[in-house]
Specification:
It is built from eight helices and 20 strands. It is an alpha+beta fold. The protein has two domains: about 10-95 and about 170-250, Rossmann fold (3-Layer(aba) Sandwich), CATH 3.40.50.300; about 255-380, OB fold (Dihydrolipoamide Acetyltransferase, E2P) (Beta Barrel), CATH 2.40.50. Strands 6-7-8-3-9-10 form a six-stranded mixed beta sheet, with helices on both faces. A five-stranded antiparallel beta sheet has the order 13-12-11-14-20, with no helix packed on it. β1 (about 25-30) and β2 (about 35-45) form a beta hairpin. It binds adenosine-5'-diphosphate (ADP) and magnesium ion (MG). Adenosine-5'-diphosphate (ADP) binds near residues 59 and 60.
C-alpha cells in the first residue's frame, strides 16, 4: 500500500538553494484561547507544486490554509506570495482562490452560472465569461452540462463544478480543504488522478489539506506532516515513506514495525548501528545509520512490513533475524499481512504479496516463521 503513484517532478526546486519559493510562510502562529492551532510554522512552496498539508483532525491544517487565503490573520509571522507580503491583505486582494469541502454551490444557479459567478462580479464582459466557462467545463470534462442545476448532478460532478469555479478566475494559487472528503472511496480514488491531471494542465500551484495519508501520497509533489500546530516533516511522498524523521511520521504513514532498544556500538566503516533488542535472535538488531550515536542511547527502529522476508525454517546468516508464531492473518486481496509474535512478546508485521491466484493464505495460525531483513531496511529514530 501507500506506494507513491506520482513520480517526482523532473525539477525539484526545493533542492535548489537559489530557487525562490512562490509561497513563503514565516514563523506563523495562531492561537484560539489556549489552543495553538498554528505554532511558529515556517514553510516554502514552489511554483507549480501540488503540495499537501497532512495531519490528524485538529492538527491545524485548515487554520494554516485559511491564513494563506486571508480568512484568518496570524497572531505573528508573515505570509509572502510571489515575494509580496500579503499578511495584511484581505482575501480578494490575494492571487488566491479556495475550494471548500462543502463545495458551496449556489443551488438556484445553473452549472455555468456557478462557474461564471466570480467573473461576473469582476465585471468581465458576457462573451468572455461564456468562453471561459466553456473552457472550464471542458477542463473538468463536463462540456455538455452547463445548463444543469447542482441538484441534477452526481457528487463527483458537483466536486468538478466546484473545481471549475475555483479555477475560473485563474488564481495563481488554489487552496483546497479536503477537496475529495465528500466522495465515497472508489470515486475518491478516481478523482485523485483527475485532479492531479487538471493541476498539471493548468500549472496552478495547489495547496491541499487532507487527513488521508494515501491521498496525500498519491497526489502530491511534497507533503508537510502536521501535528498539534507544528510541521513535523516536509518531504516528497517517497522520502516520507522511506525516511520518516520521527516516530510520529513513521506511524502515521503506512504500516510499520517499531522496535525499541539501546545502542551497543557503531561500525563506522559499514555505517551500521548495533542495537540491543529482545525481539531479535541473539538480542541484537543491526540498522544502517551513517552517524554514530553514543552507547546506551534509546532509539526506535522502524521497519516496513514489506521489507521483511519470511522463511519456514531457520534461515542462513542475515543482518536481522526474528522468530515467532503467526497470531493473526489479514487477507487483503492483493497482499496478506501476518502478525508474528516473538518469544519476547514483540509483534512483527510482515507483508506477503499475492502474485499467484490462490484462496489459501500461505501460512497458517500458529505456524512458526523466521523473519529476516537487511540493515539497510531499518530506519533509526531518536525523536
Ligand atoms: P484541522 O483542519 O487540522 O482539523 P483546524 O485548523 O481546524 O485543524 O483546528 C486546529 C485547532 O484550532 C483545533 O483545536 C480547533 O478546535 C481550533 N480552532 C480552529 N478554528 C477555531 C476557531 N475559529 N475558534 C476556536 N478554535 C478554533
Ligand atoms: Mg480541517
Amino acid at each position: 500500500m501507500a506506494q507513491p503513484a506520482r513520480l517526482a517532478p523532473a525539477t525539484e526546486p526545493w533542492k535548489d538553494p537559489a530557487a525562490r519559493p512562490y509561497v513563503r510562510i514565516e514563523g506563523v502562529t495562531k492561537t484560539f484561547g489556549k489552543v495553538h492551532a498554528c505554532d511558529d510554522i515556517s514553510l516554502d512552496v514552489y511554483r507549480g507544486e501540488f503540495f499537501a498539508l497532512l495531519g490528524g483532525s485538529g492538527s491545524g491544517k485548515s487554520t494554516l490554509l485559511r491564513i494563506l487565503a486571508g480568512f484568518e490573520a496570524p497572531d505573528s509571522g508573515r505570509v509572502l506570495i510571489d515575494g509580496v507580503d500579503v499578511t495584511a491583505l484581505p482575501p480578494y486582494r490575494r492571487p488566491v482562490n479556495m475550494m471548500f469541502q462543502s463545495y458551496a454551490l449556489f443551488p438556484h444557479m445553473s452549472v455555468a452560472q456557478n462557474i461564471g459567478f466570480g467573473l461576473k462580479q469582476d465585471g468581465m464582459p458576457a462573451g468572455a465569461i461564456r468562453d471561459r466557462v466553456q473552457q472550464m467545463l471542458e477542463l473538468v470534462q463536463m462540456p455538455q452540462l452547463g445548463n444543469r442545476k447542482p441538484d441534477q448532478l452526481s457528487g463527483g460532478q458537483r466536486q468538478r463544478v466546484a473545481l471549475a469555479r475555483a479555477l475560473a478566475k485563474q488564481p495563481k494559487l488554489l487552496l483546497l480543504d479536503e477537496p475529495l472528503g465528500a466522495l465515497d472511496k472508489r470515486l475518491r480514488e478516481r478523482t485523485q488522478f483527475e485532479l492531479v491531471n487538471i493541476q498539471e494542465r493548468v500549472g496552478t500551484t495547489f495547496v491541499m489539506v487532507t487527513h488521508d495519508q494515501e491521498e496525500a501520497m498519491t497526489m502530491s509533489s511534497r507533503i508537510a506532516v502536521m501535528d498539534a500546530g507544528r510541521i513535523v516533516q516536509v518531504s516528497t511522498p517517497a522520502a516520507l515513506y522511506e525516511y520518516p524523521s520521527t516516530r510520529f511520521v513513521a506511524e502515521f504513514i503506512g504500516g510499520i514495525n517499531l522496535f525499541e532498544g539501546r545502542v551497543l556500538g557503531h561500525d563506522a566503516a559499514a555505517g551500521i548501528l548495533r542495537i540491543a533488542c529482545d525481539a531479535l535472535e541473539g538480542g541484537v538488531l543491526q540498522a544502517r545509520h551513517p552517524d554514530p550515536l553514543p552507547e546506551g542511547t534509546a532509539v526506535s527502529v522502524a521497519v516496513r512490513p514489506e521489507k521483511v522476508d519470511v522463511h519456514e525454517a531457520a534461515p542462513p546468516r542475515a543482518d536481522n533475524v526474528a522468530a515467532g508464531k503467526v497470531r493473526d492473518i489479514a487477507y487483503l486481496g492483493d497482499v496478506s499481512i501476518y502478525h508474528v509474535e516473538t518469544a519476547s512478546g514483540a509483534e512483527v508485521r510482515v507483508q506477503e504479496t499475492h502474485v499467484e491466484r490462490s484462496s489459501e493464505p500461505h501460512y497458517d495460525w500458529g505456524d512458526t516463521l523466521w523473519l529476516t531483513w537487511p540493515a539497510t531496511a531499518a530506519v533509526v529514530l531518536t525523536a
